[in-house]
Design a protein that fits this description.
The chain is α/β, with parallel strands linked by helices. It has 9 helices and 16 strands. It has 2 domains: about 190 residues, no CATH class; about 150 residues, NAD(P)-binding Rossmann-like Domain (Rossmann fold, 3-Layer(aba) Sandwich), CATH 3.40.50.720.
């Protein structure tokens, strides 16, 4: 799928183009249902449907699209003696104008809510090729915004919305909306959680760029004004130039969120780690040696705080790859974040 940060950016820039969505894959290539790309100005601007010849066919179809919507079946071109490297895909093409006056409210609502802490659903109602795209943006209470959809869009029972909200992966489902049976492609949004970097030093700065590139919503917290310069971090990140304990007191850390503790000294890191024990964050990682971690464990066990951290604490942080430089350490950290994001039970 198109990462939420890129989707948000497309909305901000009011981009016009074609949204291509993989509805079905035979599993013989890298593409999977839910993979998306956005084609604009004669080129790919965001996302992917697996690359290779299949993606080239999709891009060519995007460039040639003359209707509002088209569904196509494609497959890799290889000699008959070789297996297909891209498999067979069923792809939906939809022409979108994210800056169109009549559609502004839908895309503005989408932009305001993603990325964010509250789970959402982005639903594409499939129809005939001559119909404009029909989208719904919903939470567990029902529809928040609709594009080219009539009032029947709000007729799903509340329990159906609640059931759909549990989805973690994209899916194609048959739903009765109002009195009409519809094929609906469902993309969960805001399932990744936020990444809080508690410290803005050399490693944190490298983590911010790499995490942003891999689809994390990055939030940096550090009182050191000289480090908290916007040009040091990705444009999509959020900076809070304040102490972490002040930040913790006013921001609600969710069960999908990630915390990376990289403060300027041991005392600060220990205080932040103790505060992290009171949050439901799915991941708590801390920079430091094994000796540092052992000393912190001793202190927090006496305070009966360590037990609340053990199952989700990653310290020393990152996947062991013998990293030394800040950039290398960032690779090991973000690799671990991606692993936990993809496998929450790990």
């Amino acid at each position: 799928m198109i990462p939420e940060l890129f989707l948000n950016d497309l909305c901000q820039r009011k981009t016009s183009g074609v949204l291509a969505t993989v509805l079905h894959s035979d599993g013989h290539g890298p593409a999977r249902a839910g993979d998306r790309l956005f084609f604009s100005g004669g080129k790919l601007v965001a996302g992917t449907v697996g690359g290779g010849s299949n993606e080239q066919q999709v891009l060519q179809a995007c460039a040639a699209l003359t209707t509002s919507r088209q569904q196509l079946d494609i497959s890799s071109f290889l000699p008959s003696s070789l297996p297909s490297c891209g498999g067979k895909l069923q792809v939906l093409l939809e022409r979108n104008d994210l800056g169109h006056t009549e559609e502004t409210s839908f895309w503005e609502t989408l932009q305001q809510l993603i990325p964010g802490p509250d789970p959402l659903l982005f639903l594409s109602l499939l129809g005939e090729s001559d119909q404009p795209p029909n989208y719904l943006l919903a939470n567990e209470k029902g529809v928040l915004a609709a594009l080219n959809e009539e009032d029947r869009s709000i007729m799903l029972a509340p329990e159906i919305w609640q059931q759909l909200m549990t989805a973690e992966q994209c899916s194609l489902q048959e739903l009765t909306i109002g009195s009409t049976q519809c094929s609906v492609f469902i993309q969960p949004l805001n399932r990744n959680g936020r990444l809080f970097l508690l410290g803005a030093g050399h490693v944190a700065k490298e983590v911010a760029w790499l995490a942003n590139r891999t689809g994390f919503q990055v939030i940096i917290v550090d009182p050191r004004q000289e480090l908290m310069q916007p040009e040091h971090f990705p444009a999509a990140s959020t900076l809070y130039p304040e102490k972490s304990n002040d930040f913790f007191s006013k921001d609600s850390i969710g069960s999908r969120d990630f915390l990376v503790i990289a403060g300027p000294d041991h005392a600060t890191d220990l205080a932040i780690l103790e505060q992290a024990a009171s949050t439901p964050a799915r991941y708590v990682g801390m920079l430091g040696s094994r000796g540092k971690i052992a000393s912190f464990e001793k202190v927090l066990r006496k305070k009966e705080r360590w037990q609340a951290l053990e199952s989700r604490l990653h310290a020393p942080i990152g996947i062991p790859i013998s990293s030394r430089t800040p950039a290398e350490v960032a690779v090991s950290i973000v690799a671990e974040l991606i692993k936990i994001r993809a496998n929450p039970s790990d």
